[in-house]
Amino acid sequence: MNHTICVLGAGSWGSALAALLSGNGHEVTLWSIDEREVKMLHECREQKEKLPGVKIPDNICVTSNLSEAVEGKEVLVFAVPSVYVRSTAKSVAPFYQKGQIIVDVAKGIEEKTLMTLSQILEEEIPDGEICVLSGPTHAEEVGRKMPTTCVIGAKKKATADYLQDLFMNDYFRVYTSPDMTGIELGGALKNVIALAAGIADGLGYGDNSKAALITRGIAELTRLGMTMGGKMETFAGLSGIGDLIVTCTSKHSRNHNAGELIGQGYSMEEAMDKVKMVVEGVYSAKAALTLSKEHNVSMPIVEQINQVLFEGKSAKEAVEELLLRDKRVENKSVNWE
C-alpha cells in the first residue's frame, strides 16, 4: 500500500530517507528551507554537497513551500539537524493536521531545556503522534542501499508496526521498541563519546584506546539513560552500543571526524568548519554534562570532552587524565564469592 510522506530537511539523511521511501513505493515530498538547495536538487537530482552519488528519484517532489510539503501527508519525517528541530516544528505547527504521524530521525538534546527532540516536538505540536527512528544508519550507506538496521520507537505498538512496514525493505531492516527515552538518549549521548574516540585517533592512539572509550562510553550513557527511565536492553541494542560503535569508528561520522581534527590540534570551531556539516555531539556535550550532574551520575568521558571543547584543555591531557583515574572495579554488581 502506498502512503504520502513529507521529509523535512534535504541534507544527507533526509535525502537518503526520501530516496528509500520513494523506492518503497510511497509518494514522497522533500522539503528544504534553503532555496539554493532546492534549486540544486531540481537541476541535478542529487545532494551534491552532502550525499554525492545518490540519485533523488524524479518522482520525489522537492519544494521550499512548507504548506505544500506538510498538508495532506500521512507521515512527517523530521530530518533537520537537532538544533533546528524546535524552529522547524514551530513553522510546521500551523499546517499540521490531526492524525499525521511525526517521526524524528535526528539525534540530540536541547542545550538550554535539556529536552529530547521528541519532547520538543510534543511541546510545539501538542496534537502530534511523535515517534523516533535511530540506530547505526549512516546516510552515505543507506543511500547506496547497503544493508542497515535501525529501531523505531513509538508509544503505541500499532504505530510502530505501521512505520516498520513503511520504512522496511530488503536492505533496510527495522525493529520496533516502546522505549523512546532509551532510544533518544542513546542516539544523542553517543555523539559525545564519538568526539572522544576521534580525539584519540587524532592523537595517534590505537585500537586499544578506542575500544576502551567505546566500552566505558556505553557504561556512561547506560548509567545516565537508565536513571532517566531508559531500559538497559535498549542501550545494549541498535540505538545504544550499535550506534556508538559505528559513530566512533566510521569515516562517515562527522562527530568522529571533528574529534580527530581536535586531536590533531584544531579548535572546536575550526574542526566544525572543516567537517562542513552539523556536529551534533558539540551541541549535546553541555546538555549531557548538566544531566549527569542533575542526576548525580558519573560521566568522566563527558566531563573531559566538555573541558576540551569549552575550557581550553588540551586533548592529550584529557585522554591521559581518563586513563589515570583512581583505581576501580569494572562492575560493582559483579562480586567475589
What does this protein structure show overall?
With 337 residues, this protein is an alpha/beta fold. It has 16 helices and 10 strands. It has an 8-stranded mixed sheet, with helices on both faces. Strands 3-4 form a two-stranded antiparallel ribbon. Helix 1 links the parallel strand 1 and strand 2. Helix 8 packs parallel to helix 12 and helix 9 packs antiparallel against helix 11. The termini are far apart.
* Number of strand segments: 10
Shape: globular
Mean pLDDT across all amino acids: 94
Percent of residues in helices comes to 40-55%
Largest sheet: 8 strands, mixed
Low-confidence stretches: none
- CA radius of gyration: 20 Å
Key traits:
16 helices; alpha/beta; 8-stranded mixed β-sheet; 337 residues; 10 strands; two-stranded antiparallel sheet
Topology:
Layout: E1 4-8, H1 12-23, E2 27-31, H2 35-44, E3 46-47, E4 51-55, E5 61-63, H3 66-70, E6 75-78, H4 85-92, E7 101-104, H5 117-124, E8 129-134, H6 139-142, E9 148-153, H7 157-167, E10 172-177, H8 180-202, H9 207-227, H10 232-235, H11 238-249, H12 254-263, H13 268-275, H14 280-294, H15 300-310, H16 315-323
Summarize the structure.
With 337 residues, the protein is α/β, with parallel strands linked by helices.
